[in-house]
What does this fold into?
Amino acid sequence: MSNRKLNLKDKYRLLTRDLEWEYSYRDYEEIFKQESFEGIKITDWSKWEDPFRLTMDSYWKYQAEKEKKLYAIFDAFAQNNGQQNVTDARYVNAIKLFLTGVSPLEYQAYNGFAHVGRQFGGVGARVACQMQSLDELRHVQTQIHAMSHYNKHFDGFQEFPHMHDRVWYLSVPKSFFDDARSAGPFEFMVAIGFSFEYVLTNLLFVPFMSGAAYNGDMATVTFGFSAQSDEARHMTLGLEIIKFMLEQHEDNVPIVQRWINKWLWRGYRVLTLVAMMMDYMLPNKVMSWQESFEVYFEEAATSLFKDLARYGIEMPAYAATAIEEKEHLSHQAWSIFYNYGHAAAFHTWMPTDQEMDWLSEKYPNTFDKYYRPRYEKWREMEEAGERYYNPTLPMLCQTCQIPMGFTDMENPTLTSYRQSEYDGERYNFCSDGCKDIFDHEPEKYVQSWLPVHQIYQGNCGGAEMEDVLGEYYRINLGVDNLDFHGSPDEERWNAWHNLQPAEDKLKEAS
Amino acid sequence: MSKVYIALQDNEESHYIVEAIEEDNPDSTVIYQPAMIRIENEGRMVIKRETVEDKMGRDWEIPALHVNLITLGGNVDEDDDELTLTWND
It folds into this structure.
């Protein structure tokens, strides 16, 4: 009971220093085999400090409190038929994308931290990784639990782990994590602690979750904020390991800079999905993608890189491209998914007039000029009974695995296209960022499992689209996919609320 | 100058924490968004246990902040009496 008298600093010191022992009959290199091969030089692990000085007793205490609050809300949501009180059924498609695209990453993060937590010689870093590993397991569990309620009332939730490993657009987040987990332990920490936590989750779990709240989704906003409260700790850990590496040895600086460049871009490309969730999948709007990006990417990154300047770390060159793309990204992403709406496990749709006006207001330089005319054409086709679906398969970027739908910011009507040759083969990229990442580690990225290549090679269930989408991806064709208008989701929603189906409205209008 | 920030869930307990932050960081800006409260300040922000306890009228410890915390930006330093966020410019 004497530990009650200890203060936070003493408790943390005892946990992370006093429990360590000297290795007397085995070589250090034999125990921590992965600590040196990346070229990172650590001279003194005792300099590692967790800024929160979190100890196990306080970890369990506050995590338990978070869980109790969270599950009280899940219960209330389910008991009160919360699924009927979201703004409209289109919104739920963002949650389908979340469960299939993001929750499995939490599981990958749990695996990843359990692994690297074993690889570091410093006990402070090992303890921090162990706690983060437990956090990530909590996130995947609470997310599946929250969304299992939607699975009872909407289509497209039933096969999320199967889909995550196979479906074309899910290879974007999946390959991001595979890339991180197949790197060394220090690179993994930069990839996840910095890129995933700092760049990605802050945009996904803060402005998007605030949007979920504004759309009546009590369960999602609560798991989102509850997860992000752990992520705040993870971001701090990510920043700490970067500073720690930079302070340990000057030879670490160029290695860390290259990882930051790479992972800032990798994380930003995965954010493409979040961009369209913000601008297109939240019927009640809180803020645009551009506005969120300015606060949580531009402003946050500028502060961070000013802070790291004392170590000689600079803002990555690709950040400028990311900033230029902010007025285009969500529209280009939504266009890709609308094109391939038959091959997605969620529904797509054209924005309403009111929604298009909101997009014009939020994107005065780009929406009316580049995207509205295309949308109006697609809407006309839909009204004529010829809803547009692209029957061909897209070329994918070898690095980020996104279809080559991004355009050149100097000429936004021209597809951005880069190419490299390696070992007699040509490889295609969406950007300088993705090309440079490949050029530095071609042996790694030539192995990318590109969904389109795999389909053409006959590895995805067969030669017909139905074989791939139905058998191999396990999409319920005609139920999970296609336009929201005319979907069983829409029909159920309208029945709950005594609404007229959109199709009847269209018929009446014509 | 760079802005440090903290975002808290919009709930009863957080309202006292926000009051305390405003008192200890008079130049800070409080932004209310759906379900969350974001507080920003140039360069530095401090959350003091004593001020929060004073607002709540009961004991409160700094790690309890995590229960209502959503996210933060800045270098963190935490001890028994306060949590500070800072950016070096």
In short: Chain B touches chain A at residues 2-4, 7, 9, 33-36, 62-64, 66-80, 87-89 (CB under 8 Å).
